[in-house]
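Memo to structure team: turn this sequence into structure tokens by end of day. - J.P.
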Amino acid sequence: MDKKYTHEHQLQADCVIWFANKYPSLRGALWGNFAEQSVSLASKKLSLGLIRGLPDLMFRLNGVFVGIELKLPGTSHNIAHLVEQSEWMQNNTDIGYFCDSLSGFQYLITHIIEHVAKRRMATQGTMLEYYLDHDGLCSPLLVLNFCRSRKTKTTTWNKNNFIKFVNDF
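Reply from structure team:
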């Protein structure tokens, strides 16, 4: 059973700590974006080169670049920002996922280390058509298609909404 978090940074901390303990020899292969700050600090970071839409965590191993955007179930998100994040992962990673649980993060990282990275399946600038089935993971394609169909400015994070939209389509 996954722990319930009240803030996204708590999930991110648990993901980073788990990774550091499980894979100490891969120190530096996983790094964070740390974009959530005050408006003034975010503006300063943008002026220093921070790019909007970057995933919260990034992981690189054997030429495979992975973007992992963390979300908490039930939290409200700006549709335009979700589109931006989805498009960034689509255009700039080999593998990208939204993740809303520690077990989803563990599954993704373990799967990449054990299967994908060993085969050096990276492509140049194109996200691999790679889908993992785990309750804590969601493809950016699902999020992008769902968000583009919405007439509202915000939505609540619920992976089942994205899956249901595809099934109803």
